[in-house]
Amino acid sequence: DIQMTQSPSSLSASVGDRVTITCRASQGISNSLAWYQQKPGKAPKLLLYATSRLESGVPSRFSGSDSGTDYTLTISSLQPEDFATYYCQQYYSNFRTFGQGTKVEIK
Amino acid sequence: QVQLVQSGAEVKKPGASVKVSCKASGYTFTRYFMHWVRQAPGQGLEWMGIITPNTRSTTYAQRFQGRVTMTSDTSTSTVYMELSSLRSEDTAVYYCAREGANTRAFDMWGQGTMVTVSS
Fold first, then answer.
1. Per-residue pLDDT of chain A (107 residues; tens, 9 = 90+)
2. Among A29, A40, B48, B77, which residue is least crowded by beta carbons within 10 Å?
3. How far is CA A57 from the centre of its chain?
4. Are A94 and B50 a contacting pair at CB < 8 A?
5. Residues near A92 by Cβ (< 8 Å), separated by ≥ 6?
6. Which chain B residues are within 8 Å of A45, Cβ to Cβ?
7. Which 3-62 residues of chain B touch chain A by CB within 8 A?
8. For residues A69 and A24, is the Cβ–Cβ distance under 8 A?
9. Mutate which of A85, A96, A98 to test chain B, going by most B C-beta atoms within 10 A?
10. Is the CB of residue A25 less than 8 Å from the CB of residue A2?
């Protein structure tokens, strides 16, 4: 299976901060990478797919990029509603795998 | 509107089986793959497998092979996930998730079903 190593596992940030989360794939996945946001007690929500394409209705402060097998989610200006846990997921392989998650907490 | 509605919480004893349902509405059921993902308390997301609703073709994560069965009923637009030989480590929230036709990511999720395995 393709392993997705996500970092950091948690971070503390303030409203207005720029936040970056990274996922490293164990092999090439050809930009077949999605990001999800999950709030406590809720199902995950799709934010981006194909590395950098915003899902409909997702604010433009969320963006994605890649460099080789490293994929990055950036929140340009953190808002109160963005405090949540974020997961990456590869869908290059039929055997889908998620990163371990990054919890974004209020500083 | 487009939604996935799952069955209610379950409490099972070790060694038993559980069957969770996921009813789709608001879209053409047979045009989208459906996945199952679980999340143990305080843990991350774990992919379990995929079913093609019209052909009933399935692919399961290796760690669940032999214990999980995913089925579909096109007459009711419902998919099912049955997990057998339950153990305490199977205590988790189980989600169904639709794979987007163009995105291949999971664009719609059920509300989740809590399965508790306890003696």
1. 999 999 999 999 999 999 999 999 999 999 999 999 999 999 999 999 999 999 999 999 999 999 999 999 999 999 999 999 999 999 999 999 999 999 999 88
2. A40
3. 16
4. yes
5. A2, A25, A28, A29, A30, A32
6. 109
7. 35, 37, 44-47, 50, 59, 61-62
8. yes
9. A96
10. yes
